[in-house]
Amino acid sequence: MKNDILYSFRRCPYAIRARWALLICEIKVEIREIDLKNKPLDFLDYSKTKTVPILIKKNSEVIEESLEIILWALSESKKEDIKLIYFPESKKEAIFEIINENDNEFKYHLDRFKYSTRYKNIDEEFHFTNAIKYIKKWNELLAKNKYFFGDSPTIADWSIWPFVRQFRIACENQKRTNYLESSIKNWLDSFEKNREFKSLMYKYELWEPYSRKNYFPCN
């Protein structure tokens, strides 16, 4: 295997945060964009969880969790002091704590708010109200600093902004207003208006076993 391979789905927030890490860490991979409703057999053979993203390393080792892909990208990057900048030792515990809060609490309510028809006996308003509690809590942090832990982003910011973006999109689709306060809105804008965002969200053709190889980043 000449290149590390990333199985991805463009709009998935877990895949977005993995791609963002690869982009910032300047790690080039072969990317395989898949249809989650028609998952290719190659992907299913590699993945135990059957979800994206997964990374197949050159030595055939499989990384199935997006956070693990982020940490791998940091370890592989040739950029000077990148771990010190984005994953400082003094903030590791707080970083993991807020990521866990997003992945296991906010995401629970976000899914049931955004996809309420997929669940039985769901009170959409209840889950919106509980999701907003995390948005407000994070806004308080961002009112003090540009990013969660200071004036520079960490992997906590990388890991959470795609989910806040998904929440914003869900609110827009439901014609809701006043769902993001100014600090968290500016924080989200800093990623969506970043010059790398276009590359991050480039629309690749769906991968098939005999497709030509595509690479991420595309440039």
Describe this structure in words.
- With 219 residues, the protein is α+β, with helices and mostly antiparallel strands.
- The chain is built from 9 helices and 5 strands.
- The chain folds into 2 domains: 5-82 and 199-216, Glutaredoxin, CATH 3.40.30; 84-192, Up-down Bundle (Glutathione S-transferase Yfyf (Class Pi), Chain A, domain 2).
- It has helices at residues 13-24, 41-46, 66-76, 82-86, 92-114, 124-144, 155-173, 182-192, 197-200; strands at residues 5-8, 29-33, 54-56, 62-63, 214-216.
- The protein has a 5-stranded mixed beta sheet.
- The longest helix is centred in the middle third of the chain and has 23 residues, at 92-114.
- The radius of gyration is 18 Å and the shape is globular.
- Low-pLDDT parts are none
Helix-residue proportion: 40-55%
Percent strand equals 5-15%
**Biggest β-sheet: strands ordered side by side in the sheet:** 4-3-1-2-5
Residue-averaged pLDDT: 95
CATH topology of the largest domain, anyone?
A: Glutathione S-transferase Yfyf (Class Pi), Chain A, domain 2
Q: Given this structure, which CATH class of the largest domain is correct?
A: Mainly Alpha
Report the total helices. 9
End-to-end distance: 21 Å
Classification by helices and strands: alpha+beta
Biggest sheet details: 5 strands, mixed
Radius of gyration: 18 Å
Task: Please give the domain count.
Answer: 2
* The CATH architecture of the largest domain: Up-down Bundle
Shape: globular
**Structure summary, number of beta strands:** 5
Order of helices and strands: EHEHEEHHHHHHHE
